[in-house]
Amino acid sequence: MITIEHTVSESVFVHAQVAAELTQKIKPLSSTVRLVKDNASVDASSILSIIGMAIKGGDHISFILSGDSEKQDAKTLSAYLSEKL
User: Fold this and answer.
1) For residues 83 and 14, what is the distance between their CA atoms, to the nearest angstrom?
2) Does the pLDDT at position 13 exceed 80?
3) Alpha-carbon span 77 to 22, nearest angstrom
4) Above 90 in pLDDT, residue 12?
5) How many Å is the Cα radius of gyration of the chain?
6) pLDDT score at 65
7) SS3 letters across 58-81
8) What is the pLDDT of residue 31?
9) At residue 75, does pLDDT exceed 90?
10) Which pLDDT belongs to residue 77?
11) Contacts of 17 (CB under 8 A, 6+ apart)
12) CA 43, CA 22: separation in Å to the nearest integer?
């Protein structure tokens, strides 16, 4: 299990389009990915679950990855987060 900690950029609000882009990045990963914010945890491959988290700029979020390729998947996800969120 690997945890990625991330603080969302101040200019970002996670609306439907951003949630869709994030799930498009997560779905091809072979790891199971959970998104955690304020002690709530959701399936990070679900657009509606991500929207329901009401993530906005400055929020601290975590992604928990588990699976055989979690190290490579964590690198892929970390790069995406640094660039987009």
Assistant:
1) 14
2) no
3) 9
4) no
5) 11
6) 97
7) CCEEEEEEECCCHHHHHHHHHHHH
8) 96
9) yes
10) 96
11) none
12) 12
Listed in sequence order, the residues at least 6 apart from 15 whose beta carbon sits closer than 8 Å to its beta carbon are 51
Alpha-carbon distance of 61 to 43, in angstroms, equals 13
Q: Which tokens in the block code for residue 74?
A: 């964590």
pLDDT in tens, 27-52: 999 999 999 999 999 999 999 999 99
pLDDT level of residue 7 (50, 70, 90 thresholds): very high
Reading phi first (left if > 0) and then psi (alpha if -120 to 50, else beta), residue 67 is in left
| Structure-block tokens of residue 30 | 């072979």
Instruction: Output the 3-class SS for the chain.
Output: CEEEEEECCCCCECCHHHHHHHHHHHCCCCCEEEEEECCEEEECCCHHHHHHCCCECCCEEEEEEECCCHHHHHHHHHHHHHHHC
